[in-house]
Amino acid sequence: MSKHHRGHDDGHGHHHHANQFTDMEARVKALETVLTEKGLIDPAAIDAIVETYETKIGPRNGARVVAKTWSDPDFADWLKRDATAAIASLGFTGRQGEHMRAVFNTPDTHNLIVCTLCSCYPWAVLGLPPVWYKAPPYRSRAVIDPRGVLAEFGLELPGAKKIRVWDSTAELRYLVVPERPEGTAGLDEEALAALVTRDSMIGTGLALSPEAAR
Ligand code: FE
């Protein structure tokens, strides 16, 4: 997967490959087909595993980063200055050459991440990207009409709130730090992490309230 992101850059840290398989993707596809035909694997079981990584296992790393950021001002500071190092200190590291930047939601500004050219995603903290993140409608419309896209995710932001859209590249991946919900003063990091959804770290959602998480 990293191979297609090296060399042939267009100055953006990308090159165009939206409609073609990378070498790795083609090999994985071929393996899946052979193993399925031989009756060795069930594609539905693979889908279930992928789904688990997308929604459950992967994003838990990011949730721990956010919970620590909410609880520990020194860590929040570090994350703001050098997200790559702060995140690595928790044991979550990217591939060689990738850097992380954390963007913090505030009462004035909401942050949204996208990769307009392909599907660059902070996999070390969020796991595998959801299908919609890789789909052309999200990639094109997140930039042109972020407010409309968020509304489709059920997130209606007040008109006065600014939306900043961050375009990920092979070299730089973003993590949204959602605002800490009200009524969470007494919670420890583990309880806080349970409020941090995957979508809240992409910017297509907010962190859950303690009532909603129950
Ligand atoms: Fe990309």
UniProtKB/TrEMBL annotation:
* SUPFAM superfamilies assigned to the protein according to its UniProt record, in alphabetical order: Nitrile hydratase alpha chain
- Nitrile hydratase alpha/Thiocyanate hydrolase gamma domain mapped to chain residues: 23-204
Alphabetized, the UniProt keywords read: Iron, Lyase, Metal-binding
Kindly list the GO molecular function terms attached to this UniProt entry. nitrile hydratase activity; transition metal ion binding
Which reaction(s) does the protein catalyse, per the Swiss-Prot or TrEMBL entry? an aliphatic primary amide = an aliphatic nitrile + H2O
Pfam families per the UniProt record, alphabetical: NHase_alpha (PF02979)
Identify the domain of life.
Answer: Bacteria
Enzyme class, spelled out: lyase
What EC number is given for this enzyme? 4.2.1.84
The yes or no answer to whether the keyword Electron transport is present is no
- Classification via Gene3D superfamilies: Nitrile hydratase alpha /Thiocyanate hydrolase gamma
- Binding annotation for Fe(3+): 115, 118-120
User: Belongs to which family?
Assistant: Belongs to the nitrile hydratase subunit alpha family.
Protein name per the record: nitrile hydratase
Q: Which organism is it from?
A: Rhizobium fredii (Sinorhizobium fredii)
Q: What is the lineage of its organism?
A: Bacteria, Pseudomonadati, Pseudomonadota, Alphaproteobacteria, Hyphomicrobiales
Q: Which gene encodes it?
A: nthA
